[in-house]
Predict the structure.
Amino acid sequence: MIAPDQILSHNQAQAPEHHTRLQYTEGVLERKGFNPAQIIAQIRAFQIAIPSWALGSGGTRFGRFSIGGEPSNLEEKIEDVGLIHQLNRSANSISLHIPWDIPKDVPALKQLLHHHGLTIDSVNSNTFQDQKDQVHSYKFGSLCHTEAAVRQQAITHNIQCVEYGKQLDSKTLTVWLADGSNFPGQHHFRQAYQRTAESLTAIYQAMPEDWTMLIEYKPYEPNFYSMIIPDWGTSYSFCQSIGKNAQVLVDLGHHLPNTNIEQIVSRLMHFGRLGGFHFNGSMYGDDDLTTGSIKPYQLFLIFHELVDGMSDPEVKNPNIAWMIDASHNTKDPIEDLLQSVNGILSAYTRALLVDRVALSQAQEDNDVVKAEEILRDAFLTDVRPLVAEAMRLAGGAIDPIALFRSAQVRAGLIEKRGKFSTATGL
Ligand code: LRH
Ligand code: MN
């Protein structure tokens, strides 16, 4: 891993240019009436969960190209997230996926998590693959299946995920269903919906009072005619019927082209059912690319709605789970995740720089150009010095990717774990 003095000497080398840039940016903010120290404090407080299933090389049906030095068990995955958090001090938790991350030695795992300053944020169930010792197949669905025995098997699996989560002090179950159909006539839509509602309710009622269920929607893949939970409206309807601790999970890649995701986010906040995000970038479908790499303005507009809602006392929305869900086919997974965290923090910081009083006035006056220019001014602000300073003040690196490279961490991991070690996950 990286020794503290390596971070120190890295920051000392970066300091002159960094402080020149920071002083300029702080000047710009102060002249606009913002308090740079407060903005930096808000950036430091914004912590993002890293997916355990995205620490190795991802792949597609056309191929998978191993990067070497991949974590091959939960302990090594915790070490890799620990490294990411050591570098940027902005990734203090991990999302687990069961059965890929079934905890074996719980006391040792809790000690390792504590050592790296990490917690487990959410446990993800998996009823989209058949495990070798499984009795019933999920080929034709899980919680929506026509056979009660298959639905019960899937319900039991989700309850088991909650048990694993409890062992590691998590309080959130994330449910994404691959359930759906590939051809017209295959599903009775209303009956399949009703079976799914009853199954989700059975899982919810087995969860402890203080747990949250996040229900993730997706319009297609792996089914290509219909999905049981294709859109935010369906997920929201399940949340309403299941209980107050059931909320909608928004995976940025789970929207049809040209969907106004920021409006969906504002709706869910208005209804108090926005539970969390799976951040990633996409050009076409569920591409799971680096967050903010393809549509940075859209990501900014999403955070504009989030900051607006979170700063409005009228909005009664629960704490939102900030999680990444990505897959890395051509980048080093750790570098990609460091970029994603940066992309998210940059979008959040720009949203903090929106002059909301002036914007509200321009909206009241229907001054379309002024309203847009107020947003663009915030979006076009170079916030990188603020994000870097937040990481530096928290004991991290001014430029995490540069240090990851100069410290030759990947070479060290390959030497320690081998060129062909592969991580469980997608
Ligand atoms: C489905 C999904 C879901 C996960 C999986 C890893 O596309 O977004 O969140 O369980 O990816
Ligand atoms: Mn997801």
About this structure: The longest helix spans residues 4-31. The chain is about 50% helix and 10% strand. The radius of gyration is 22 Å.
